[in-house]
Amino acid sequence: MSYLLGVVLFALAILISVSLHEAGHLLTAKAFGMKVTKYFVGFGPTIWSFRRGETEYGLKGIPLGGFCKIVGMTPQDDDVEPGDESRVMWRYPVWKRTIVMAAGSITHFALALVTIWILAVSAGLPNPDFPTTDAQARQEPAVIQLSQCVVPENAVRACTPADAASPAAQGQLQNGDRITSVNGTTINSYGDLLTTLRGLKPGDTAQIAYVRDGQPGTTSTVLAQTQRPPLDDPKGAAAPVAALGVGLVPSTPTRVTYGPIGAFGATADFTGQLAVGTAQALQRLPQKVPALWTALTGGERDIDTPISVVGASRLGGEAVENNAWLVFFMLFVSLNFFIGVFNLLPLLPVDGGHIAIAWFERARSWVYARIGRADPGRVDYLKLMPFTYAVILIGGAFTLLTIAADVVNPITLFSR
């Protein structure tokens, strides 16, 4: 039940975000005096609506987004009523049109920034000093977190009754113990522990010295077997190695909370990281199509593949089910930021395409004026329709592929 609640809550959050996106267009267009005839949440048949002034507001039957109708977005629009010629959007200065078209993405960015700031002063943001690579982790002191078992294959999954019990637990080690030596070899870091264990064999007895609550101690245990790639080649072929059944407890916390003022700087830093990650994700989109097809046809789903609104909602459901509200809100932040950036791409029919054309017209007019030629006027959107249809076709196919993969073989963050 909590999973279903999470799915609904996340889907509702997305719907609200998209509705606010359209409200950004609505409010800025009205502020500049442009004529806005419709603002609806959803698509399809009208469930409920009312008119205030010249604008009809309402709710449609299919809650998948929304729309805002601004009269005369292009010179080719033929829905201009007599007397409204001066209020059509395409006649306004380029800077005003840019603000109106960018207002949707700015709304998404604002939602993300406000959410990040709230998280910074409440639940905390990811600690920038937390080790995120194997090399960084291996420099940490060998303070351990016990596993309940040793999984024999090279995989991350829940324990089963068939899995070998954790040798560390059998040796009476505890969470938070810092291992200082194994079979007489001094252990100064987690990397030393891994290297020393790789020098032993499954079934060997390990004599372990440790420090617990400032007091030294010793124990012995028989090492189990698992599969791991070489330490110097994480992508290499896995081979049988000795396992103690422990993980690393980093010396730095995973999250950091900030005061109301300090949270602004932390929000800016985190947003910068988010921007870089989003740009990299957009660059990788074409490369991920084969991986999505593999997931759809029965292969393993790569956690780094794109997700649709369906997949994001499912992850939101998992987060609520596991009481991981920070994950829920981070998903909300990431999705809003991604939508904001995507809508600014210079491609029709998204907002960035209209902005790009407006500035192209402005630059072309400036150049023609400098060389003494007549202003060529506005771009003919009808000539761009084949390109627009191609973008819609490719984007639609990619969206359907992603949704299908999210239904058939979804990404999961928690064991269910």
From TrEMBL:
It comes from the Bacteria. One of its GO terms (cellular component) is membrane. It holds the Pfam family Peptidase_M50. Signal peptide: none annotated. It is found in: Membrane. InterPro entries: PDZ_sf, Pept_M50_Zn, Peptidase_M50. SUPFAM superfamilies: PDZ domain-like (SSF50156). One of its GO terms (biological process) is proteolysis. GO terms for molecular function: metalloendopeptidase activity. Belongs to the peptidase M50B family. This is Membrane-associated protease RseP (Regulator of RpoE activity). It comes from Micromonospora ureilytica.
